[in-house]
Structure formats: structure tokens, C-alpha cells
Known about the structure:
mainly alpha
Amino acid sequence: IGYASYASVENQKGIKVLKVNGVECSEENISNGKYVIQRPFNLITKEGAQLSEAAQAFFDFMTSKAAAELIVQAGAVPTAK
């Protein structure tokens, strides 16, 4: 038994993805939080601190629709907004 990202196991032969509490591992169940085993990517900033121009641009891109599309193309599940 091991732990791998959704993008690594999707459509792979010989890998069995387990249900957790009766919930199947699917893009929809990961996105809506019903599949509880997941690794969200967190962007953290210090409260009250202003980001540099480059950091703000990175943050804006990472939370954009364009980034979500790239995440989907890579086989991962973007965070629902």
C-alpha cells in the first residue's frame, strides 16, 4: 500500500485506487473535498505584509484560470473556487 498523487495513478494498469469512507477517488470527489486523502498546494503569505511585484504576479497567476488549465493538463486537480 502506498500513497501517490492522482496524476500519477490515473489510467495506470496494475494500480488499485482505494475508496475512503465509501467515496471513490475521482477528480470530482477530490475537487469537492469528498475524497479526504489529498495534498492541497497552499500559498501562504504573512498577514499585513505587502508582496513584492514578482511575488504578487506569481500569486495572481497561481490562482488564475490559466494556471488551473495547466494543472488539469498535467493530470492533477485544481482547487475549486
